[in-house]
Amino acid sequence: MARDDNASYYWASANQQFDLDPLRGEQQFDVAVVGAGITGLTSALALAERGYKVCVLEGQTVGFGASGRSGGQAIFGWAAEQDTLEKLVGKQDARTLWELALEGLALTKQNIAKYHIDCDWQDGMAHLGIKPRHALDLEEWYHSLTEDYGYQGLELWDKQQLEQQLGSTRYNSAIFDPNSGHLHPLNYTLGLAKAALGAGVSIFEHSPVTKLERGPSTCLLTSQGQVRCQHVVLACNAYMQGLESKLESKVMPVGTYICATKPLGQERAEQLIRNNMAVCDINFVLDYYRRSVDHRMLFGGRVSYSGVAPCDLAATMAKRMRWVFPQLSHDEVEFAWGGNVAITMNRAPHFGRLEDNIYFAQGFSGHGIAATALAGSLMAEAVAGTAERLDVFEKIPHYPFPGGRLLRTPALVLAMAYYRIRDLL
Q1: 8-state DSSP, 401
Q2: Is 218 helix (H, G, I), strand (E, B) or coil?
Q3: Of 296, 313, 295, which is closest to residue 304 (Cα–Cα)?
């Protein structure tokens, strides 16, 4: 997928840019990180601050993948809910995973403050119910998180309370979390890159890794050079593209899409989301949206499990947005773009080791903004010799998608057709 400067609101509103050279010749580093998204840059920055000589190899440009394209919502927890994690790893480890997810949120905010990253952070996020059963699901979820996990600050809203904050009558209930929030994901990623460069990290753009040679001294090859190093961090997520089949088989690249209106003006934008929270519903195939700092509506969803984007993306997204907000029926969509996120079969994160000196983090399943900050921190800890917290993630069982690279997509398309129908019931 080519860089979509003209299609993406994020690229159009980026507050800095880089033009970094590709890797050329043979170079030596302590650690090589593959992927200049949030996970890769966070791990590289943390390792450089520990005194390691670090490089980042990026196949395209900084923030090219989901880190620079996503809805920008930093959400508590994991895509796999806590009861699912309890079944997978037991209650004690599920609680540890919950606490680590909250740490990811805290790390995101700390990074913004520590490195003075201008990325429009805004507190507040709500999960919304549409059907009667959703209201019951949200109430059960609220009591589980507040009573079983001791998570403070959540608010359970009925339809009337929700409509005091949201200019849509489509929903019947909500859980509001003041600790979650939203940001400009590309500017956050670019800010991490700036901090990493300042800490001495070498970032090479347009340097896709074509081969990974394992061993005590690992070698990564690109079209114009190679890196020899003692440790490797694979932070490719949905863009592994044949580099490591054992990892690629455990995730499915899924297309997700966003549109941005022209600026609506402050008064109209505030009528849509009065408290400026991020929003997503709890359908399996969900909608998510938020306001931008320049008073646009950023509306996302309509995932593609087939890898094929809608023919007229702007019109498709505008239709969905206007179903939620009819008052935008005459407002023009100025930007529409998409990209891939990586989901796992169980929607739990897939972090771990390939070898004693090769680490990976992938499969954020739509919860990448906060979880990637944690992943980068865990990668740095493991390289530095403290891997106990990474060990918890390696207890989560992960299985390849059925059908291999050729048949997994058709199989999942059929499965998702069932869930789309279920969302309508």
Answers
A1: P
A2: strand
A3: 313
CA 184/CA 178 separation, integer angstroms = 18
Burial of 347 (0-12, 13-18, 19+ CB in 10 A): middle
Task: Classify burial at 311, counting beta carbons within 10 Å of its beta carbon; exposed 0-12, middle 13-18, buried 19 or more.
Answer: exposed
Q: Say which residue the tokens 């593609």 belong to.
A: 304
- Which is nearest to 390 in space by CA: 372, 377, 378? 378
Locate the domains of the chain by residue range: 9-414
Rounded Cα distance between 338 and 312, Å, is 12
The tens-digit pLDDT sequence of the chain (425 residues) is 334 555 899 999 999 999 999 999 999 999 999 999 999 999 999 999 999 999 999 999 999 999 999 999 999 999 999 999 999 999 999 999 999 999 999 999 999 999 999 999 999 999 999 999 999 999 999 999 999 999 999 999 999 999 999 999 999 999 999 999 999 999 999 999 999 999 999 999 999 999 999 988 899 999 999 999 999 999 999 998 889 999 999 999 888 999 999 999 999 999 999 999 999 999 878 899 999 999 999 999 877 766 667 778 999 999 999 999 999 999 999 999 998 899 999 999 999 999 999 999 999 998 999 999 999 999 999 999 999 999 999 999 999 987 655 544 544 554 444 344 444 44
The fold of the 9-414 domain, in CATH, is FAD/NAD(P)-binding domain (3.50.50)
Closest residue by Cα to residue 367 from 345, 394, 343: 343
Neighbour count for residue 2 (Cβ, 10 Å)? 7
The 3-state DSSP class for residue 206 equals coil
Q: Work out the burial of residue 230: count CB atoms within 10 Å of its CB; fewer than 13 is exposed, 13-18 middle, 19 or more buried.
A: middle
| Cα 402 → chain centroid | 24
295: its two tokens: 């008073």
> Taking the model in full, what pTM does it have?
0.93
Pull the structure tokens for residue 127.
């999960």
**Phi/psi of residue 194, nearest 5 degrees:** -60, -45
Name the packing angle between helices 368-383 and 38-49 (round to 10°).
Answer: 40
